[in-house]
Amino acid sequence: MSARQHIAAAEAHSAHNYHPLPVVVAHADGAWMTDIEGRRYLDMLAGYSALNFGHRHPRLIAAAKAQLDQVTLTSRAFHHDRFADFCTALAELCGMEMVLPMNTGAEAVETAVKTARKWGYRVKGVPDGQAKIVVAAGNFHGRTTTIISFSTDPEARLDFGPFTPGFEIVPYGDLAALDAAVDDRTVAVLIEPIQGEAGVLVPPPGYLAGLRRITAERGVLFIADEVQSGLGRTGRTFACEHEGVVPDMYVLGKALGGGVVPVSAVVSSAEVLGVYRPGEHGSTFGGNPLACAVALEVIAMLRSGEVQQRAAELGDHLHSELGLLAGAGGPVTAVRGRGLWAGVDIAPGHGTGREVSEQLMDRRVLVKDTHGATIRLAPPLVISKEDLDWGLEQLRAVLSG
Ligand code: PMP
């Protein structure tokens, strides 16, 4: 089948809830993908940060293969021999005590919301049914009905109501608004330490530290959704570390499964995750042996700190190169981000994000447009400096063309 035939068949038989670039990938290795007609592309999106270690990292593939020969799924009706190791290692990586494993980012966020509410009723003494969670405008936490209930993206909500109550939205980066929104019913503040889908928005300095102070003083949980920002992307294990902040709960996903298996988790204290009793929450696949085996290898790689170091060093290079495009009269109006993660706003007259993405595809570089005139760069953290420079060269050529 040609690429054209694949795309036509996909359009006929799958819902049109995405608008993919017209490339059909058949193979991938490290930072490179190959399409079914043999063309090679540099991956500068990395599965929205699920592929922080690149495609098919040998250690992750070896861990998966070894586990395939042992046991792949038990459900949580039984213990299995990778589960405790995974929970212990992940809790340790986070400096926390307990883990509740799920599969996707959205499920983990749902779990965080449910956990915060239950904690609010059982521990904090919020009157039943009254719990409120404060969130930020521009957020992206996933696609479930409850999560889109507090989205500020009209497309994400269109014709999906009725919505789940119990959320208050405040402007991102505004500590005074956050402080005013936290009241006696509030059980948690849920934010992304850097807003990914919004265009890699870094909050003003002091925001995370202020949020930490306010939530601690008022006795509400600080939930950091690090599904996209966490696990090395920003040059640290967690984006919260850039302000020396430790939240009460991490929500993790994407890179936790190394791009091999879906793995997500909520990580917190024994007081918070201790609220659950058997039967109150769960997932057939959450914490399965294959997922745990791969995630254990991901955690081991993160423990060495190498990938974070690379993301920090190459990230400085990426941002200084992009900064050169953002000078007066240049093709770029703003560059945001940390580490190997950048939101790039394209100046009027240099194309929409989609157009730039398509032109980059023609030059064998794959990125994703975010809004009208923004593209996002998030290459695998294992990318070589030469490949990164080659990708940037293609971007410069497209933007100056
Ligand atoms: N939280 C954040 C911060 C995300 O960026 C995403 C995905 N882009 C999610 C949650 C949802 O993850 P998933 O697509 O695995 O449900």
Automatic annotation (TrEMBL):
Keyword Transferase: yes
Metabolic or biological pathway: Amino-acid biosynthesis; L-proline biosynthesis; L-glutamate 5-semialdehyde from L-ornithine: step 1/1
EC number: 2.6.1.13
Gene: rocD
GO molecular function: identical protein binding; ornithine aminotransferase activity; pyridoxal phosphate binding
Protein known as: ornithine aminotransferase
Family, per entry: Belongs to the class-III pyridoxal-phosphate-dependent aminotransferase family.
InterPro entries according to UniProt: Aminotrans_3, Aminotrans_3_PPA_site, Class-III_PLP-dep_AT, Orn_aminotrans, PyrdxlP-dep_Trfase, PyrdxlP-dep_Trfase_major, PyrdxlP-dep_Trfase_small
This protein's record includes keyword Amino-acid biosynthesis: yes
Cofactor(s), by name: pyridoxal 5'-phosphate
Top-tier EC class: transferase
GO biological process: L-proline biosynthetic process
Keyword terms of this UniProt record: Amino-acid biosynthesis, Aminotransferase, Proline biosynthesis, Pyridoxal phosphate, Transferase
Domain of life: Bacteria
